[in-house]
Design brief:
By secondary structure, the chain is an alpha+beta fold. About 45% of the residues lie in helices and about 10% in strands. Helix 19 crosses helix 21. The longest helix is centred in the C-terminal third of the chain and has 25 residues.
Length: about 525
Amino acid sequence: MLELSLANRLLNFKDTKLAIPMVCPDVSGLEDQLADGTVFRLLALKDEHAVSGRDLAAEEARQIEVGLARDAMVRGQVAVPLTSRDMTNRLTELYRKARSDAAEGGTNTLFLAVGFLRWKRTDSDPRHYRAPLLLLPVKLERRSAQSEFRLSQLEDEVRINATLLEFLKRDFELRMPELEGELPRDESGLDIPRILQILRHKVRDVAGFEVLEDCALSTFSFAKYLMWKDLVDRTDNLRESRLVRHLVDSPTESFEGSTRAMPQPADIDRKHAPADLLAPLPVDSSQLAAVMAAAQQRDFVLIGPPGTGKSQTITNIIADQLGRGRTVLFVAEKAAALDVVHRRLERHGLGTAVLELHSNKADRKAVLTQLDRSWDRASGHSTADWVRVTDDLRVTRDQLNGYVAALHLPGTQGFSVYQAIGRVAKQPAGVLSLAFPTRIATISILGCGCAGSRRSWGNGIASSPIWARVARCCWLLLGNGHLAGRMRSLRQRPDCALHCTRRKRQGAGWRNCSDTLPPSSACRKLWPR
């Protein structure tokens, strides 16, 4: 997790398109002005043509540029040894990269590196490397795509390059306890001269080491170092968590409680009333089981592909935990996941219970504003409202569960409506084959009045030639709209259905019906002469 190779820009800083070098004769004054809220513009020195066309020594040209940079600071500008075009291109790349990092990771990665350590691996090593010393959080702003960039300090903690300190401790046995805690400060902010003096004193006896008072603007990321630092410094505190203690002490053994059965979706409605759960967003049974598992303080992993409602489930879990008076820490790799959950909580009136501690919402003013809003929040609803709503929900839930039970209940024909729908759905269009073992079952189905294809039923139902003929006649009979009111009586009297079938066929001109079943009294009422 701790990257101490030359691939780390915190140890081997290079001048790339995502880096802007600066000529700053007074790094301490620059830090003081940024801390006081000064907003700087950037000056491209190459466009000033101060040394072009003149035969000057390198040191003399350097002094002229330093003089221009000093005058620029007085005018609120920071000198950059680049052309205007090159500087603008690099600033645009940095601006986009910093915004992308803040949107995805929720943290600022744009820093002004103040002071550098020039170092090499061994005394005989011909190559030198540069590592930044102090990292000042800054931001780039512009009013439009055509306007110039402005540089200002971000309200965040100024950081020492802790990765460099750890590298010096491991590879060169150089310890700097004066810089590992609170950094030296003066009346204007950090005491930059004092910090650089401490570094010079520590590395003075190491061959090839030199402290430079240079500045550069670039992006740096040390999130993994902070994670490593927490694991090293707070191992005992982290062991108070059952999960962390298991991962640290016994990762090869089964986790405590892993054999306990998780809440099953089918048991939620049977074991729990709606008042036992607070799930403001739509939720299915598997998601509700996850909410209940969290309510029971179970340890589990929620897995699902994109679009299956993970963030929706997390929102319901957080809402339910808040309803139980618990505190929730929600951590995500990308800020977008945090924003989605927060927006949903806010949409359902729970935004004042959330304290956002990421990206630009983690500065002192934003945190105090959120705490003040949460302190003043009050609920306008009473316990009676909650009881009334949950009672109505319980009645509706029981009605829906009753409908589902009836849908899956097998009838006298031997299968349920759900199974019948599934069988029809699997058949090719216009082809359906059903066979019933008894006469009662056949008439019961024929008289139920369900919509379907007369051709499919007439061609497919065939337990005997007689019943196949009855089936065709019954569909002709039930196909007429004015017979809809007589469906129930036909379903209740199979003998009446047979007689009605015979009469209907004779009325339509088919005189060869061989049925001789006499009409019942109920049939005479349905079909008066």
